Amino acid sequence: MGFRRYQSLFAWILTVVLTATVTVAIASPVRAQSWMNLLLQGLQVIQLSNLSDQQEVRLGQQINQQLYQQGEFRPHGDRQLQSYINEIGQRLARASSRPNIPYTFQVVDDRRINAFATMGGFVYVNTGLIAAAENEAELAGVIAHEIAHIAERHAVTRMRDVGLSQGLISAAGMRENNIVQMAMQLGFNLPMSREDELSADAMGLRNLVRAGYAPVGMVSFMEKLQRQSGAAPEFLSSHPLTQNRITSLQRSIPSQYLYQGDGLDPQAYSRRIGRQSSAPTLR
């Protein structure tokens, strides 16, 4: 059964419940109040197929609160660094294909090389990834990739698909608290699909260029991660093979435009992030 038929069924059920509520109200006001409470609880469900921007942002705020309450993330205390990352993120968000929602960019105190995005415009960047980038264009490439996931609503689509396959979505939809819990579980236990990651690369690259950054930053950061010894960093461990992503990006950028744009000064970047000599870097 498709989502449009689900919505029609829900509308019919709602009509029946409202009719029953009015009928019961005539016979017994007390029972009518109980019926109304059940009805209000039912109205708290959300249809993932046509989630509004406002609903998505509200869910993102709840997910963000849960992440910190449960100790999944620890915010970094350097306000200047937080301001700098927000400056980069907002520049990219304005140039993205979905600039009409509020974006929140947060620095996570974690030396692992990782970045993460949830629905509703929330992007998290680890201090380890910030230190691993050589310049602003490299960092901006990662953030642009995460913004692309939000712009394409990949998290929402993934929850809808998983919810349907596991029978978690009713004719009405899903309750808010269930969506938040599923988002938490999927965000840490189920990677994005290969198609979603390659799509985020392509869209992120376009976003990077529209925002005025040199596109080579996205390519050079992936090449740097690929060259490091040992296992792939967390940022790429569940993503498509790095070389395939690099090759795809290189084919998308005419060689004469690789170095055109901002963000290629490593000294300026080091000053902005307050890089210390002991900070982890990848060469």
From TrEMBL:
Q: Which PANTHER family match?
A: METALLOENDOPEPTIDASE OMA1, METALLOENDOPEPTIDASE OMA1, MITOCHONDRIAL
Which cellular components does GO assign to this protein? Answer: plasma membrane
Any single Pfam family the record assigns to this protein: Peptidase_M48
Cofactor details (free text): Binds 1 zinc ion per subunit.
From what organism does this protein derive?
Synechocystis sp. (strain ATCC 27184 / PCC 6803 / Kazusa)
Indicate the family of this protein. Answer: Belongs to the peptidase M48 family.
Single GO term (MF):
metal ion binding
Q: Which CDD domains match?
A: M48C_bepA_like
Per the record, the GO terms for biological process are: proteolysis
Alphabetically list the UniProt keywords. Hydrolase, Metal-binding, Metalloprotease, Protease, Zinc
Q: Which cofactors does the annotated protein need, by name?
A: Zn(2+)
Name recorded for this polypeptide:
Slr1971 protein
Residue stretches making up the Peptidase M48 domain = 81-251
